[in-house]
């Protein structure tokens, strides 16, 4: 596996992880795992 393939795999894993973590409870309910998701959630509740 070359460097570019390694990088692409890491990016893919990272995006899957972020998608999974965004389904965790938001800052209102518990620990904040994903700042972007929680920020969007806060803006939606204004």
Automatic annotation (TrEMBL):
Question: What is the name of this protein?
Answer: Uncharacterized protein
> Can you name the source organism?
Sphingobacterium siyangense
């Amino acid at each position: 596996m070359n460097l570019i393939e390694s990088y692409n795999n890491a990016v893919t894993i990272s995006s899957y992880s972020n998608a999974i973590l965004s389904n965790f409870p938001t800052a209102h309910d518990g620990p904040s795992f994903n700042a972007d998701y929680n920020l969007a959630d806060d803006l939606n509740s204004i």
